[in-house]
Amino acid sequence: MTRAVPLEAPAFLAVLGRAVRLCCPRCGRTRLYRGAFRMHEACAACGLRYERAQGYWVGAIYVNFAATAAVALGAPLVLDWVIGLSLRRQLAVAIAAAALVPLIFFRYSRSLWLGLEFFVSETDERRERRLLRRRR
Ligand SMILES: [Zn+2]
């Protein structure tokens, strides 16, 4: 298989769309996961390594934590506002959300982290290359 790396850096919305679809952030042609929680090591189409360094996925844990906190704290409040839940039921909803959201969102948190980190590092590399060209 050819490993053609796209010349143009993808736009932020394109990278975000690929992250939501769990696809490679650089080319969008291959899936990130080969199982429920197992990722491919690299993109088969463009060769982008997904885990750049040891501890790379710590950022994904923050993404997952933010989503979990938003749902576990927000869902009981919204449900209370809409249908008037008792405090006990609000607590049950919050605990259920805190247990389930990290599992459900696991794949997306890694994909979103990968896409965000790819976009930022790609933008930095392009800026450095542009500065180097100007100095010459
Ligand atoms: Zn790719």
What's the structural blueprint in terms of helices and strands?
Elements lengths: L11 H9 L37 H26 L3 H49 L1
Helix pairs in contact: 1-3, 2-3
The structure holds zinc ion.
The site of zinc ion has 9 residues, from loops.
Question: How would you describe this protein?
Answer:
This protein is mainly α and 136 residues long. The protein contains 3 helices and no strands. The protein has one domain. The longest helix has 49 residues, at 87-135. It starts with 11 loop residues before the first helix and ends with a helix. Zinc ion binds at residues 24, 26-27, 29-30, 43, 45-46, 48.
Question: What does the main sheet amount to?
Answer: none
- CA(first)-CA(last) distance: 37 Å
- Alpha-beta content class: mainly alpha
Strand content: under 5%
Computed Rg? 19 Å
- Helix proportion range: 55-70%
Residue runs with pLDDT of under 50 for 5 or more positions? none
Provide mean pLDDT, rounded.
Answer: 91
Tell me the number of structural domains.
1
Bound molecules: zinc ion
What descriptive keywords fit this protein?
single chain; mainly alpha; binds zinc ion
Outline of the structure:
The protein has 136 residues and is an all-alpha fold.
